Amino acid sequence: MTRSLKTEAVVLKKKDLLNRDVLISFFTAELGLLTVFAKGVKKITSRRSPHLQTGNLLNVLLSHKNDRYYLQESQLISGFFELKKDENKVRQLYSFLFVLDRLLPEQQKEARVYNLTKKFFIDLSKSSKAEMIIVKYLTEIMMILGYLDKKVNRSELKSLIEEIINEKIPQLTL
User: Fold this and answer.
1) What are phi and psi of 31, to 5 degrees?
2) How far is Cα of residue 43 from the mean position of the Cα atoms in its chain?
3) What three-state secondary structure class fits 95?
4) 27 has pLDDT over 90
5) Closest CA relative to residue 46, chosen from 12, 13, 17, 20
6) Using one digit for the tens of pLDDT, what is the confidence trace for 32-42?
7) Higher pLDDT, 44 or 70
8) End-to-end Cα spacing for the chain
C-alpha cells in the first residue's frame, strides 16, 4: 500500500547512488529525520535536482511504500542564498547539519528541534558572529534531546558531541 505525505523539510545531506538516483536525509517537522530515495534526480531534465542542495528548506511530497520513502515532488521555500555567500557561515551551517544528522533518531518527531533548526538558519543569516550562534543552538538542541542538563562552554560542548556521535565534527570552529 502506498501513501503520500506532504511536509516541510530541511535537506541535511545527500548521497549519490548508482544510475540517476540519490539518497537524501531530510529533517521534517512531522517525522523527524527521514532517509528518502530520489529516483532519477540526476537526470539533466529533473526539475527536483536544483532544490535538493544541502541546507535548503523545501516543501516535499513523499510516498511511503514497503517501509521506504520516495521523493515525488519538491518545491523550494528558501535556499538561504545570503547565508551561503559567507564562507564562515557556510562552514558553521554544514557543521550544524552534520551534528543534527548524527544526533537525531530516525523517524522520530522532534518538533522543537525542527523549529530551532529553522530559527538557527534565520539567526545565522543575520548574525556576524556565526560561532556564537552555532554554540547557542547546539546547546539548546542537546538539552532538548536530553544529552545536557545545563549550559556548557564551547570546548565541553564540542567534546560531548564528538563523544556521543563517536567521530570528529568537520570544520567546526568552537
Assistant:
1) -120, 5
2) 24
3) helix
4) yes
5) 20
6) 999 988 887 75
7) 70
8) 47
